[in-house]
Amino acid sequence: MRERDGAHILMEVLKSEGVEVVFGIPGGVVLPILDAFYDPGMPRFLLTRHEQGAGHAADGYARATGKVGVCLATSGPGATNLVTALATANFDSIPIVAITGQVKTFLIGNDAFQEADITGITRPITKHSYLVKDVTKLGECLRAAFHIARTGRPGPVLVDIPADVASAKTDVEIPDSVDLPGYKPVIKGNRRQIKRAAEAINAAERPLLYVGGGVIISGASELLRQLAFKTHIPVTTTLMALGSFPEDHPLALKMLGMHGTAYANYAVQESDLLIAVGARFDDRITGDVKRFAPHAKVIHIDIDPSSISKNIRVDIPVVGDASDILEGLLELCEPREHEEWLAKIAAWKAKHPLAYKPDGLKPQYVIEQICEISQGKAVICTEVGQNQMWSAQWYTHRYPRHFISSGGLGTMGYGFPAAIGAQVGRPDALVVDIAGDGSIQMNIQELATAVYNKLPVKICILNNGHLGMVRQWQELFYKRRYSGSTLNGNPDFVRLAEAYGARGARITKAEDVRPALAKAFADPSVWVLDFVVEPEENVFPMVPAGEAIDRMIGGMA
Amino acid sequence: MRHIISTIVENKPGVLAHIAGLFAGRGFNIDSLAVGETEDPARSRMTVVVRGDDSVLEQVRKQLGKIIDVIKVTDFSDVEFVERDLALVKVAVKPERRREIFELCEVFRGKVVDIGAKQITIEISGPEKKVEAFIELLKPYGIREVVRTGRIAIARGD
Description:
The complex is a heterodimer of chains A (557) and B (158). Chain A has 557 residues and is of the alpha/beta class. Helices cover 36% and strands 16% of the residues of chain A. Chain B folds into 2 domains: 2-78, ACT domain (Alpha-Beta Plaits), CATH 3.30.70.260; 82-155, Alpha-Beta Plaits (2-Layer Sandwich), CATH 3.30.70.
């Protein structure tokens, strides 16, 4: 084996792992690595304007493509700027390999310039991390990082590379695979447990599939569809699973939980068997756990044993990959009709549809039109808050990996850089970031990245002049005392877009929504559409935090 | 209820911090912790005594299992095992009453490891209750310092 330096070992691993692009920002200690990117035939280095943007872009790329996203930052502040992005990916089980530079090995612990203990800082928010102090171990650690990131319950893995390790030379070969004695994720579901689950499904009268992001990660959407169609079991999804089941199908109940549909929540509360697949009974789903699904036996299918019986008592746990287990269930479950149960659900759907008053320019209307004009085929990224919940509710989600949103951590400023990453991964797709006027300003500097790299993301700002979800909670629970939630001093987003070389338009009337969207979607530029919507519109229905999920308030639903 | 959780981990820097951080971050209370190399120098054993009900313990076990550098997790609640605590106790004692201490040591199989003009230091090991009973008996003399290890435990052999 010929000698090469650590930076070129990194390039070799990136290439052999099929990495096409690395999002990041350089700095002193990663100069050897940046220099290696400059050679012909290396993966593309895509310069963002903030490391958080790089981290979210890698995350959006991973969610849109199913591949591992890679980001790079220098030591110290570069690395700490990745923290929010890593926590976001960790919470939503997204495979990322983050490369950080570190000060030279002999300076570690000396409070050197731009030094931060980034493996220490990120330990609780990564799946694993390596500080590589010896160049002969670098290839092995990087190989392990990709393996850990993408297998089992995926997640972010950080590899911290000191400057002298990046430039040190070795002729050590990079192993093709790694053996990690402490890491053996269970993929195949226990056959006896699958049989027990199938028996429960066959015996149930009011079963309900409660589907989480694990189904999308596992690539099990088609199997889920087949199982639901065969057994006529209705399907409700979490935010993370939107698109795993076609919402235009009669068996679809859309999202459940705090801002879920009334009929999904009623179905949970009346079901006699809840089949959770790749979901983790988050508090935004369960509300008061003691009053959650009171009549239901619970089957819990999850690849992460620590998810089982964490929040709620489970009757039939099945640990393993959703695809493997759903395949087993599909074989063992008998065809059923469930006419009575489905009729009851249909009646709830008719009586309690999602609804809003169509006066003025309503955010819900904007999202419906985004869905219609894109024929539901856009890759939708969202920020966090009202824009996110309306996107979940009012867009008809039909395809997996077409809805990209920070679920667990709820990171404002996630959507736009994630959309950039999604557009890199899916160059031919229409990628739309549905944003609020608050969230978009948290990573708006990435407009430069999108424009320069010709990544024609369409940003649709639902501009209500507030941190809308905060304002909604203050309206409902704090006597309309809008403390700290009014966004005075917002910029002119149209002129801001133009300043970055993007195109912009302001829309103030409902009748202008469709033409504006049609124009922007057909145009190859980056667009910022500033929809000036009703300032005090709320997301309904809503389950107040800690209530039972059938105790919804508000709106017309 | 108290549980003794025994883990085999990779003998690498950062593993102890990872495990300690996990307990802190998830609100689990550690009663004691002992770490040492195993028969394989690439691996260490961490013995953790932790308090909590069954559901807490189940989470502790599962969360430990998720750490990549943790190779094996055993809860000794399910198996027959031998446990030991070790303590070094420094007691104030006048020369004329040393004999009483020696007698106590004999009964408890304690070992005198240091004798000074005014103080005497005893090594005592055994199950937690025995160590505590011994310390209790020494209290009237005036305990100056107690240093205790975390619990270690090993499953009984075949």
